[in-house]
Design goal:
By secondary structure, the protein is α/β, with parallel strands linked by helices. The chain folds into five domains: 1-39 and 72-82, no CATH class; 96-223, no CATH class; 247-329, Threonyl-tRNA Synthetase, Chain A, domain 2, CATH 3.30.980.40; 365-622, Rossmann fold (3-Layer(aba) Sandwich), CATH 3.40.50; 637-735, no CATH class. Helix 8 crosses helix 10 (295-302) and helix 12 runs parallel beside helix 15 (499-512). The protein starts with 31 loop residues before the first helix and ends in an 8-residue tail after the last helix. The chain binds adenosine-5'-triphosphate. Keywords: ATP-binding, Cell cycle, Cell division, Membrane, Nucleotide-binding, Transmembrane, Transmembrane helix. It comes from Nocardiopsis kunsanensis. This is Cell division protein FtsK.
């Protein structure tokens, strides 16, 4: 059975590769061996001539591909074909934004080119005028030749030399008559044109006569061009416009990466937005990841700028399907695409915000509600542009409360300061302390919101207990969006005194806060185990990974196995492609995006707009409303015990916990371990009394939380003494609304 759409390879055209080469469903591919056999001299025997020896008992395997059940049939083949039919309408007719951009470009192009030509028209005219005498001379020459019938001169000469008198006389008479008529016509024409011209010149005002003279000069100028004259209107080409993508180029560049074998073109190479798209199946044994990893090599082999070559995998097809998109113009050399909200507009964080652009130039939206965002990348990879876009989007929603902790101290996020409930910029201890304080307060706010939502009737929370726009609108509930940005959060997470607690709280917030309208944005330039708590990198829901240097950093930002699955931010060049990264909305929804780039001056203007919006809406709070924010400790003994509790331990002796609390927070707990006699001078009896007192203090302090201490046996670790069970602690945390680790 032959494939209905099979095309033959064109022998004359080196750029043409047979398409499609994959067999239709149910068709057995023609193997090399089969073809060789056909070509060879091997004697072929018709199946009907073959005698089966002991067919009944024969165990010879039947060729399963010949069984009727395995054949797809016409319907299946054509269904499969139909699925692959390219879109009916070109992309610019389907995509409003592309259509608008194209229309805008056409208008801009002709306006710009028209203006360019118009401003140079005096130069063109001068050049034409300089050539006009030659043109006029040529025109008179051509007219003279016509008038005096010079084209027949050669013929008359030949006849005269051959002494064919009668013929010569006939030609002579004809020549005389022609010349007379033509001179007469010329004289009449010259006279009438001169008269009309003179009268028109005399009658018309000078400004009206000028175009006529100019047009005549231009005509004669155009006629005066020599074969090697330079064109009057100069032309130029753009080095940034890339040559068209051909299948031969795709094949040879993949071969340059070491991919040997037959490459199948699944679809013809076609225009896709401002570029070309080739879809190929790599030869068996090769995976798309190889091409993704060697993107720079591929661009080199294609002799194209890196920023124009975008290989992608097609997870819906198979791991060997490569989608190669090549930009027509080098985006690095084209004008910056402006953030759609740059000049006007506001946001609603329950809806999408414009985050950036994909390589095709389409706006990529992001919904920040019910999510949190981790942005990571090496220094200079463009994290600030990612966090700036989200911070400004938050600022432009007048209902959104903004808490911004820019822990680099660069002042990059200063443009949003005027609208922030809390704003801190700096990387000193005091800034880290504020960051930790903010996390504690966010956790307290989370508990408050959780309680309110838990108490709402079911019809108020139709799709589960979380914040909804109608709840956010009710001011008295205080469930409006709260956007908390921790820029360069590694400064806080690595802090000797505050890091551990900050990491613990951030981990809990990342897991719990998003349903309650608290959106956490964390950026880090050091995505490693110490700077980025595992609990954060494991649980964050949206990730934007800019250029990183290795697979560990890649997977810390993007999630486990992403590198293995071909989602590799190692492919980006942080210098040439700053701001470009993988945006992962989930492990199955990943795409390459360049965050919209907003300059500081522009961000300041947007910040002013946001301030105006909030002033009008009456939603300025905190520092933005002139209040001073005091640092208060909202954590409890339960939080402190959770922080000092050694991981993996189900039970702990009270004495050990009290000692740990005293060293963790000496201001609060040092007096729990104080004794009249120094420890080293205590008798065993005194020591026992002292430890009993410490254990009793802890028991008394835990009683209001409903946690009871009891006898705990720890083999090899102090035997049987008063202690606390981890499970009791977690149960108490849950009761008090505080998110416990094990929940
Ligand atoms: N989205 C973008 N589009 C175009 N250029 C960008 C983009 N983002 C950043 N850049 C360019 O890259 C440079 C460095 O970016 P940026 O300072 O944001 O990096 P960073 O990752 O925040 O650096 P650091 O880790 O040092 O804070 C910018 O000055 C800008 O020129």
């Amino acid at each position: 059975m032959s494939h209905p759409e099979r095309h033959e390879q064109h022998p004359d055209h080196e750029n043409v590769v047979s398409f499609p080469t994959r067999p239709a469903i149910g068709v057995v591919p023609e193997t090399e061996t089969a073809r060789e056999l056909e070509r060879s001299d091997v004697e072929r025997v018709a199946p009907e001539d073959v005698e089966l020896v002991d067919a009944e008992n024969s165990v010879a395997s039947r060729p399963v591909d010949d069984l009727p059940a395995t054949r797809g049939g016409w319907i299946d083949d054509h269904k499969a074909l139909l699925e692959q039919v390219p879109a009916l309408l070109p992309s610019y007719l389907r995509d409003k934004q592309e259509m608008a951009e194209n229309a805008k470009f056409i208008v801009e192009y002709y306006a710009r080119m028209g203006a360019y030509r118009a401003t140079r028209s005096p130069i063109y005219l001068l050049k034409l005028t300089a050539r006009s005498p030659r043109g006029m001379g040529r025109a008179i020459g051509v007219w003279g030749q016509w008038c005096f019938d010079t084209e027949a001169n050669e013929l008359r000469k030949t006849v005269a030399n051959s002494s064919r008198t009668s013929e010569y006389m006939m030609l002579s008479r004809q020549h005389g008559a022609r010349v007379r008529t033509r001179i007469l016509v010329s004289l009449i024409l010259a006279l009438s044109v001169t008269t009309v011209g003179a009268v028109a010149l005399a009658a018309a005002p000078a400004w009206a006569a000028m175009p006529g003279i100019v047009a005549m000069l231009a005509l004669f100028g155009a006629a005066g061009a020599k074969a090697d004259s330079r064109p009057i209107v100069e032309r130029w080409t753009s080095p940034h416009i890339q040559r068209e993508l051909t299948s031969a180029e795709v094949v040879s560049s993949l071969e340059a990466l070491g991919i040997k074998g037959h490459i199948d073109f699944v679809n013809p190479i076609q225009t896709d937005g401002p570029g070309w798209r080739a879809e190929v199946d790599l030869p068996p044994g090769y995976l798309t990841e190889k091409v993704l990893e060697e993107r720079a090599k591929l661009a080199g082999a294609m002799r194209r700028p890196l920023t124009t070559v975008w290989p992608e995998s097609d997870p819906e097809a198979h791991p060997g399907r490569l989608v190669l998109w090549v930009a027509k113009k080098d985006p690095a050399k084209t004008k910056r695409r402006l953030w759609p909200l740059m000049k006007s507009g506001q946001t609603d964080l329950f809806e999408d915000i414009p985050f950036g652009f994909n390589p095709r130039g389409q706006v990529i939206p992001l919904n920040l509600m019910y999510t949190n965002l981790l942005i990571g990348g090496v220094p200079g990879s463009g994290k600030t542009s990612g966090v700036m876009v989200t911070a400004l989007a938050g600022a432009l929603d007048p209902t959104c409360e903004m808490w911004v902790y820019e822990l680099k101290g660069s002042g990059d996020l200063d443009p949003v300061q005027p609208v922030c409930h809390r704003y801190v910029s700096g990387d000193d201890d005091e800034h880290c302390a504020s960051g930790l304080d903010a996390l504690r307060k966010l956790e307290k706010e989370l508990k408050r919101r959780k309680k309110i939502i838990a108490g709402l009737p079911a019809d108020q929370v139709p799709k589960g207990r979380k914040v909804y726009p109608h709840l956010a609108r009710e001011k008295k509930l205080g469930l409006h969006p709260l956007l908390a940005v921790f820029d360069e959060a590694h400064t806080l997470f690595e802090h000797e005194d505050y890091g551990k607690e900050a990491a613990d709280i951030a981990g809990r917030l990342v897991r719990k806060a998003r349903a309650y309208g608290i959106i956490l944005i964390i950026t880090t330039q050091r995505p490693d185990a110490k700077s980025l708590p595992k609990v954060v990198s494991d649980n964050v829901s949206t990730r934007f990974c800019l250029a990183v240097t290795g697979h560990t950093a890649n997977d810390l930002v993007l999630g486990t196995s992403m590198y293995k699955n071909g989602v590799r931010a190692t492919m980006f060049d942080p210098k040439k492609e700053a701001g470009t990264g993988w945006l992962a909305k989930s492990s199955h929804d990943t795409q390459i995006v360049r965050a919209a780039f907003i300059e500081q001056a522009e961000a300041i203007e947007i910040g002013k707009r946001a301030l105006a919006l909030r002033t009008a809406a009456g939603t300025l709070t905190g520092e933005a409303a002139g209040e001073s924010i005091t640092t208060e400790d909202t954590t409890t003994l339960l939080d402190h015990l959770t922080t000092v509790w050694p991981s993996g331990e189900d039970t702990m002796h009270s004495v050990r916990l009290v000692e740990a609390l005293a060293s963790f927070r000496p201001d609060t707990y040092a007096h729990w371990v104080e004794a009249d006699t120094p420890l080293e001078e205590m008798s065993p009896e005194q020591m026992r009394t002292h430890e009993t007192r410490m254990a009793t203090t802890l028991s008394n302090a835990l009683a209001p939380f409903g946690v009871h201490t009891g006898q705990v046996t720890k083999r090899g670790g102090g035997g049987s003494r008063k202690g606390v069970k981890r499970a009791d602690l977690e149960a108490a945390m849950n009761r008090s609304g505080a998110p416990a680790e094990a929940e």
